């Protein structure tokens, strides 16, 4: 399933929530959406699944409008979790499975397998309202995947989970991807996007400010961080051409450089000055790129 969003704009009254967004997500890909609160991620997801119509532009999956896809094709984990608190887990999952075209037996088999995988088979008959927040989230995740969708859209799937459950869910997501599911997800933790996605989009005020392959984005982002530990004073580097910022830690000096050629120039000079214990150039993190492009740390 290939997703194409061409020049998509969505307005709510005077507010432009998504502004001329073009995206291309390939079949079987895991795609990350980043953006501060209100950047337009959820609105984008809702257009991907046909809940919202764009004011301008087009959305299609394999050339088909999302509204025309079969219910079985899409799985969606909404940001606002929407389970029925009074219903028992299995009853509720059977109901949702039936809505997506599964028989009762198929739904029960899928749900039992997922409950085992998530180490919560004993909650089969529990009311949702009696589960912890993290376990409710696992149930909500199961609701999004029990019909084995080809496209899975996960809005903040890891928020509110402890590290063990984050790992459990991450593994599940990676397995689904390896089985061929196309996955789009948003996360407020850039490390999740960095570890899971080859391709991503950073949105800011409805506009895509960075979009493409993570490795290409990092390569074309010129700024580098340089870490040095030396047995002599490095104070002369403060005014070195291409050094944008210098921070002296207890053991190590960290420099922000205009680009990697500055590191080479510094390296050439240090060799003649004394013993250098450590010299390393760091690739930019997604966090660095986000701050540069969006102008503020991620909320
Ligand atoms: N149904 C709506 N009616 C009016 N305005 C809306 C509606 N949905 C979203 N908006 C506005 O559109 C903008 C983008 O919202 P959206 O929920 O897509 O952002 P987001 O990136 O998902 O944010 P968050 O990380 O906080 O979930 C916001 O300013 C929001 O207030």
Describe the structure.
Residues 3-230 form the ABC transporter domain. This is ABC transporter ATP-binding protein. InterPro entries: AAA+_ATPase (IPR003593), ABC_transporter-like_ATP-bd (IPR003439), ABC_transporter-like_CS (IPR017871), ABC_transporter_ATP-binding (IPR050763), DrrA1/2-like_C (IPR025302), P-loop_NTPase (IPR027417). With 299 residues, this protein is an alpha/beta fold. It has 2 domains: 3-211, Rossmann fold (3-Layer(aba) Sandwich), CATH 3.40.50; 222-283, Alpha-Beta Plaits. The protein is built from 9 helices and 13 strands. The chain has helices at residues 41-48, 89-99, 104-117, 133-145, 163-178, 190-196, 214-220, 260-270, 286-294, and strands spanning 3-12, 15-25, 30-35, 56-61, 74-77, 151-155, 182-186, 199-204, 207-213, 224-230, 243-248, 253-257, 276-282. Strands 5-6-7-3-8-9 form a 6-stranded mixed beta sheet, sandwiched between helices. It has a 4-stranded antiparallel beta sheet with strand order 11-12-10-13, covered by helices on one side. Helix 2 (89-99) crosses helix 3. The chain is elongated, with a radius of gyration of 23 Å. The two termini are 32 Å apart. The model has no long low-confidence stretch (mean pLDDT 91). Bound molecules: adenosine-5'-triphosphate. Adenosine-5'-triphosphate binds at residues 12, 15, 17, 35, 37-43, 79.
